[in-house]
DNA sequence: CTTGACGACGTACGTTGTACGTCTCAATAT
DNA sequence: ATATTGAGACGTACAACGTACGTCGTCAAG
């Protein structure tokens, strides 16, 4: 009986994937080494045979997520492909709300480096001047991360304040900020609560891309 | 002797300001309650007579930083004032590298709410349509936070890897990413290390503002 | 002179990451 | 067949953290 119950030994991929699932489902705060080990049916110290420490584990998790980002088709025009890639990145990052924060605090692994390479190559092929291509890379990267981090951070705050009713936080904020003192802020928040405004993600992305092209053609 | 050494009692402002100084000088990781108490010449639990918990302390610290943001002059044209405010925000946030991350994870206090109000009012007075003003607010906020968080995160990573030589991290990264596989990434990094490219912060900010104005006039 | 409030602090607890050493077992070498 | 080795799971233990609780001294109001 005892020999029949041999589990398969742990391995790095299993640990990393379990980490991603745990962070996705219960938030990054629930990702403790003990918790993770429990979920896998092992004890804490078993994990350390497969990852050096938590920091490394997080880095590996990030790189797995980076692999999930869809590539634009090869035959797409560079600027359209940039646009498409930016949207894919946002999609993937939004599916793993714990990622955007950590993204900026870890060195890129192979998959994320490949992702940067792709975006940089597209800019190189876009016809923009080298300096504008350089700035474009940063502008788009910043746009993707910034917008996503903000979205995700907001909803994380709301659900951590009251998991049952994410709206509760907004109403509590409204109760504490008088409309006579902060009329525009209150109005803005109401726009979010009542009418639902579409995301300006793609709109602003296009402002950036159009701005790059426009400046490029006007100085060439 | 003992009665002559009476210290002034602690108060909330002292705690909050000491927290800011500590986070500024030694990083947010060094901001532990014990550390903070030590710096003030008190013991840990004394702090809890003045702040409810660490979370609240961080929130108070953030709002003090929000107060530091310079307002644009009242007579400045709305769009110019928005631009000016965005630059002031970046300046202040950069002076407190621990802020951008936390900024998105805490509800705004009074000062930050006032800051939002200001930006929203400027957009309201800008002549943009209400929906574009709404999007403009998010676009600019995102730009400010995103760009700053990225700057600050990078340098934080570099200095935490090797406080003596922040460049070391870049060279280590280069050593691990072959130029044959990642030519554009390597070239991009070299642009940062050799030529020093000016920040694209204002350039992209203008892309956004110009994009808003252009779209507004073309659909009005 | 008493009383009551307030602020500082000692003690203690639960939670976290992880260093270190031990034990088991299968694969390999003799 | 026996001895050796190495990998992997795990128990124990520790330091650092946030913070709950209770105690004590001091000072102002009754």
Tags for this model:
2 domains; homodimer; Arc Repressor Mutant, subunit A; 220 residues; mainly alpha; Tetracycline Repressor, domain 2; 11 helices; DNA-binding; 0% strand; flat
Quick summary of this structure?
The structure is a homodimer of 220-residue chains. With 220 residues, chain A is mainly α.
List the helices and strands and how they pair.
Two copies of one chain form a homodimer.
Chain A: H1 12-26, H2 33-40, H3 44-47, H4 54-67, H5 78-95, H6 99-103, H7 110-125, H8 130-161, H9 167-176, H10 183-193, H11 201-218
Helix pairs in contact in A: 1-2, 1-4, 4-7, 5-7, 5-8, 5-11, 7-8, 8-11
The structure holds a DNA duplex (30 and 30 nucleotides).
Overview of the molecule:
The structure is a homodimer of 220-residue chains. By secondary structure, chain A is mainly alpha-helical. Chain A folds into two domains: 1-51, Arc Repressor Mutant, subunit A; 69-218, Tetracycline Repressor, domain 2 (Orthogonal Bundle), CATH 1.10.357. In chain A, 69% of the residues lie in helices and 0% in strands. Chain A contains eleven helices and no strands. The longest helix of chain A has 32 residues, at 130-161. The first copy, chain A, is flat. The model of chain A is unreliable at 1-5 (pLDDT under 50). Chains A and B meet through helix 7, helix 8, helix 10 and helix 11 of A and helix 6, helix 7, helix 9 and helix 10 of B. The structure holds a DNA duplex (30 and 30 nucleotides).
